[in-house]
Every structure is written in C-alpha cells, then in structure tokens.
Design goal:
Blueprint lengths: L2 E6 L5 E5 L17 E4 L2 H7 L2 H10 L17 H4 L1
Antiparallel strand pairs: 1-2, 1-3
The protein binds zinc ion.
Protein name: Zinc ribbon domain-containing protein
Organism: Geomobilimonas luticola
Pfam family, one: Zn_ribbon_8
C-alpha cells in the first residue's frame, strides 16, 4: 500500500498516510486542522512500498557492477560467493 506524505500549509507539520489508491486524500492537518497539500513522496513510496519495486530493481541491475560499499568483496556479496 503506498504511503502519501502531506504538509500542512498552516503549521508546516508533515505527516505520512498509508492509503489505498481508492482512498480520498487527506485534507486536514491532524495537529491543527489546517489545510494540507500532498507532497511528492516517491522516495517514501519506493522505500516502504516493498515487493514489486525491489524485485524490479534487482533484475534490472543484475548485469551491472555490485553496489556493495566495499566493492563486492564483503562476505554477503553475491559476487564474492561466485
Ligand atoms: Zn497544521
């Protein structure tokens, strides 16, 4: 389920809502009741959305260099095991 991020235009409070695509967007700040606007939250969505994104990303980079911070030489790296 995607996570939407909102920011209050009155108090600048930001909050996240986990909503279905069919749910109505939030319009009120839970802190002050002011008007909120939806933020672009593709980062939150990709990090917390789970499954499909991770699988798609993994398959698309399979032929690229490993992204391990130690250059693929750590024990957990697929390239080190191969
Ligand atoms: Zn507010």
């Amino acid at each position: 389920m995607p996570v939407y991020e909102y920011q209050c235009t009155a108090c600048n409070n930001t909050f996240e809502l986990r909503q279905k695509f069919s749910d109505e967007p939030a319009t009120e700040c839970p802190a002050c009741g002011g008007t909120v606007r939806k933020l672009i939250s593709s980062t939150a969505f990709s990090l917390k959305g789970g499954g499909w994104y991770t699988e798609g990303y993994g398959s698309s980079k399979s032929s690229d260099a490993p992204t391990c911070p130690s250059g693929g030489s750590c024990a957990g790296c697929p390239s080190a095991a191969a």
